[in-house]
Amino acid sequence: MNGIQSFRNQGLVRPRNGRVFGGVCAGLGRRFGLGPWVSRILFLIILMVIPGSQILVYPLLWVLMPSE
Asked: Contact 27/62 with Cβ under 8 angstroms?
């Protein structure tokens, strides 16, 4: 549980409101001061530049990032 608590301490949590799928992009956007749609668009752009890596990262973050 230390890993999950570490995410919570750093402000990386999946918000209850504003989720579209799992809340990962919304949580990352909130943590880094971006809007949820800006972080989703950046996620898609990165997916087009480096295909495949986000498909592995997103589920991992979904599991590790605690819900609010």
From this structure: no
CB 61 within 8 A of CB 24: yes
- In this structure, the number of other CB atoms found within 10 A of the CB of residue 50 comes to 9
Can you read off the two tokens belonging to residue 32? 């880094």
- Residues 19-35 have pLDDT tens digits of 888 888 888 888 889 98
The answer to whether the beta carbons of residues 13 and 66 sit under 8 Å apart is yes
What pTM, to 2 d.p., does this model score? 0.76
Q: Read out DSSP for 43-59?
A: HHHHHHHSTTHHHHHHH
Cβ neighbours of 23 (radius 10 Å): 22
Largest CA distance in the chain: 33
For residues 12 and 52, give the distance between their C-alpha atoms in angstroms, rounded to a whole number. 23
